[in-house]
Amino acid sequence: MLESGGGEALKDGLLEKRGDGLLQRWKKKRCVLTEEGVLLLPPKQHDPHPHHHSHHPHLHPQPPGDTGRIKQLHFANIRTVDCVERKGKYVYFTVVTTEGREVDFRSPQEAGWSAEITLQMVQYKNRQAVLAVRSTRQKQQLLAGPGAGVPGHVKTPTGHGKPPQGHGKTSRGAAPGVA
Predict the structure, then answer these.
(1) Confidence class of residue 161 from pLDDT cuts 50, 70 and 90?
(2) 38 Cβ partners below 8 Å, 6+ apart?
C-alpha cells in the first residue's frame, strides 16, 4: 500500500526530520500517516492548507521524477517510537527501525505526531498478530483434516472419526460402577 502511493491518509501535515548529514539540520517534511506506515515527502508537495485529520481517499500522485525523495517508514520495519523530550514548543521523538536505525523528528506539541504514529503502529502490529493466529489455526485445521476439533472424536488411521475408547466404560469394558 505504501509502495503504490495509495491508501487513506489518516493524518497529513508538516513535521521536521533531522538530516543524516554532517550538520544534522532539521528539514521540513510532509508526513502522511496511513494504516500501513508513514510517508515522508518534500514540503513543497504539502497542501498549503494543512488538514491534520484529513481523510483523503487516496494520496496525491507525485510529479514524475520526484519519487526518489519519498521516504517510506512501513510499520513492519519499525520497532518503536520513543518520545525523547518536550522542549519549548516542540516534541522530539525517535523512530527506531528493526535494523536499529534511528530517525529523529520534531513537531509542535499540539500536532500529536508522536502519539498518533505510535497508536497506528500498535494497531498495525495487532492486526498482523491476529492475522498470524488465524493463519496458524487454518493451517492446523487443514493438517488435522475432517473430524478434527470435534469433541468426543478421535481421528483413526482411515481418517474417520469415532468416539475415543474408555469414555463411559472402565478399562475392562464394564459400565462405570459395575464390578
Answers:
(1) low
(2) 31, 32, 72, 73, 95, 117
CA distance 175 to 119: 59
Q: How many CB atoms lie within 10 A of CB 138?
A: 10
Q: How far apart are CA 93 and CA 110, in angstroms?
A: 14
Among 15, 5, 8, 17, CA closest to 46: 15
Give the per-residue pLDDT at 11: 94
Q: Are 141 and 149 in contact (CB under 8 A)?
A: yes
Which residues have C-beta within 8 Å of that of residue 97, sequence separation ≥ 6? 73, 77, 78, 79, 103
Long-range contacts made by residues 87-94, C-beta under 8 angstroms, separation at least 24?
Answer: 93/117
CB count in 10 Å sphere of residue 71: 13
CA 95 to CA 103: how far, in whole Å? Answer: 5
Looking up cell 510517508 gives 39
pLDDT at 44: 72
Report the distance separating Cα 110 and Cα 15, nearest Å.
12
Q: Compute the distance between CA of residue 36 and CA of residue 72 in angstroms, rounded to an integer.
A: 10
Q: Residue 128 gets which letter from DSSP?
A: H
